[in-house]
Amino acid sequence: MIQLHSSSSAVTLPASATVAAGATSVTFVANIASSAPAGTVTLTASLNGVTKSTSLQVIAAASALSVSPSSLSFGNVTDGKTSTQTVTVSNSGSSAVLVNSASAAGSGFTLAAVSLPVTLNAGQSLILTVQFSPATAGAASGSLQIGSNSSVTPNLSVALSGTGVAPSSVAVTLTPSSVSTVVNSTQQFTASVTGTTNTAVTWSLSGSGCSGSSCGSISQTGLYTAPNAAPSPANVTVTATSQQDTTKQASATVQIVASTGKVYYIAPASAGGSDSNDGLTASTPWLTPQHSVNCGDVLRAEPGTYSASSFNNGQWGSVSCPAGNNVAWVMCTTPFGCTVSGGIYISASYWGLQGFQISTSSGTCVNVAPNFNGNRVEVHHIIVANNIVGPCGFDGIGSVSGYGTNPTIGADYLAYLGNIAYNTGGNSSTCAAALSFWVPIPYDTQAGTHLYMSGNFTWGNTSNCGDGEGIIFDTFDGVEGSSTQPPYAYQAVAENNLSVFNDGPGIQVDLNQNGSGAHAPIYFMQNTSAYNCLGPSSATYCAEIVLGTTVNANASNNLVVAPTQYAFGGGSVTHYGSAAIYAPSSTNQISNEFAYSPYGFGVGSVGSPGFAPGTGNITATDPLLAGPADPGTPSCSGYATTTACMAKVIANFAPTASAASSYGYQMPSSTPVKNAYYPQWLCSVSDLPAGIVTPGCAP
């Protein structure tokens, strides 16, 4: 039996080995520990006093350097953007290893800054960060090379891949961008998506003070309905996200405020409406507005079909308004969901009407005038806003005092805002217009604008007597020139309206020069009037904008297109752009107009020897309207405002020539501006629909 011995405890041998009978050798195993240091170990075998030795050279264990993962795929990355991933370099061996180099190769691949060389002891790791920022679209490949002093795995490689994607041209805009609305009210938002044929968006609501239904709700068409109570904080964010590119979105802020007045309810008789009810809940609604209320109150009309008798002459109650700067609203709960066939007659002061559709086969769709059935008193501070009127047998919306008499009472402080008036006049022989101020009688002598039309849309209005205007300021100097009543002397303005495809002029003032006394200053500004003067008519003149038998009339910054040489479909009546007609006074001004006539009649005059065109008129340049067409019958279900409903019409009559872009109708903004022509009493009116006019209330 041979005795065995090792000079190192890291190398172990069996204590002995037996040589079989007749054999001259024996085999045994030396076990070398993984922690054995490098060096020479002496192995000794002894038998019967004889000792023999041999040397065993021990080499230190090799390092085990590895990298994970072995490849990086960055997927799709937009050109110019950066995607980042990491790899881990590990030493799983028993001895230290030096990582002395690392570099990324390939288009768009870079290695984030790292301090090398780095010594990795056994069990230690190093994280390397790789970035992919493609400069061009298309597939890209590369590699990450890692160098070390390891004798076993001196170099490592990681495959890199990714695809550069061209930047998305999709863009989303949202209007309005900021708005304030009251609880339970609606607000229409419009999302515009460019850069793709897929213009669909997904709507969402959020707020730090609300979640779910407490933020309100929003329909697929962007109609936002405010919650029953204002959240705290009272701001809700409306977001429209492109369905084509979900990284592109636009947001708007809605401030929810409590209604400034008391809320009442109105409903048709078929839905339980009765003036014997208290009107305080939707289940106990009134039938008519013939109740005493206060300015700031809202009579919420439930959607449905109403009898004209509910809103007829004498059916409007007394509104208490000590400050004289607000109205009580009759407001359809669902915009354009309340229909009235037979017309509405507002016969009391401080009332507002919004969200209705009104038609009548005879008479005016919405008439503002004193109560003819009782003690007649002046009607004033009336707002007709965000309604659809038509077809109408006479005027669309009109004000009346009297005819053939010398009236001392009538209507004043009127505002027609954001209405659609179409197919009025009824092809009758009566002299009708879509929107009319007729024989106004002043309520007081305060300066500033008393009569105001803004944000309205008119088309298809007819009359065989020579009228059929989209907008007319009519007989401000009395009753057809025969009155001894002093002329109406207070400012009247039509701005930012769109009047097209009417039988008569788009916008006109007529009879504002007769009688003794001061005459009203009239301003027509920033309107679009085009493709009017269609006829038939017995009139011997027509222009898109007419300053007729008037003094103190001003037309400026309007966009006017008179596309034909003659009016009314004939060959004798010249079709002017903007013109003074039988208004021989130097007090009338047509200046800074974009009034295009391909026949040279952009700005003209008939029977007006004292008139001379002002400066800055552009008459020989075609504004190149995008797609002028008769708007036809409007369909506004699901929209909160006529402005939103008319988006296509607005776009059709927008000029594509850059020189004309600042003229004519402009999309309203919710941000107030300073506007001396804006009636300042409107600045305190609560619950005025946002987005139909730009408030002119900035200091």
Would you mind describing this structure in some detail?
The strands form eleven sheets. This protein has an eleven-stranded parallel sheet with strand order 25-27-30-33-36-39-42-45-48-51-54, with no helix packed on it. 47% of the residues are buried. A hairpin with a 4-residue loop joins β21 (217-218) and β22 (223-225). The chain is mainly β and 699 residues long. The radius of gyration is 42 Å and the shape is elongated. It folds into four domains: 2-58, no CATH class; 65-165, Immunoglobulin-like (Sandwich), CATH 2.60.40; 171-257, Sandwich (Immunoglobulin-like), CATH 2.60.40.1080; 384-656. The chain is built from two helices and 56 strands. The longest helix has 6 residues, at 647-652.
Topology:
Blueprint: E1 2-6, E2 11-12, E3 16-17, E4 31-32, E5 39-47, E6 50-58, E7 65-68, E8 71-78, E9 83-91, E10 97-105, E11 109-111, E12 118-120, E13 125-132, E14 138-148, E15 155-165, E16 171-175, E17 178-182, E18 186-188, E19 190-194, E20 201-206, E21 217-218, E22 223-225, E23 235-242, E24 249-257, E25 263-266, E26 293-294, E27 298-301, E28 304-307, E29 319-320, E30 328-332, E31 338-341, E32 344-346, E33 351-354, E34 356-360, E35 366-368, E36 379-385, E37 388-392, E38 397-399, E39 411-417, E40 420-422, E41 433-438, E42 449-454, E43 457-459, E44 469-474, E45 491-495, E46 498-500, E47 507-512, E48 522-525, E49 528-530, E50 542-550, E51 553-556, E52 559-561, E53 575-581, E54 589-591, E55 594-596, E56 603-606, H1 642-645, H2 647-652
Parallel strand pairs: 8-15, 17-24, 25-27, 26-29, 27-30, 28-31, 30-33, 31-34, 32-35, 33-36, 34-37, 35-38, 36-39, 37-40, 38-41, 39-42, 40-43, 41-44, 42-45, 43-46, 44-47, 45-48, 46-49, 47-50, 48-51, 49-52, 50-53, 51-54, 52-55, 53-56
Antiparallel strand pairs: 1-3, 1-5, 2-4, 5-6, 7-9, 9-13, 10-12, 10-14, 11-13, 14-15, 16-19, 18-22, 20-23, 21-22, 23-24
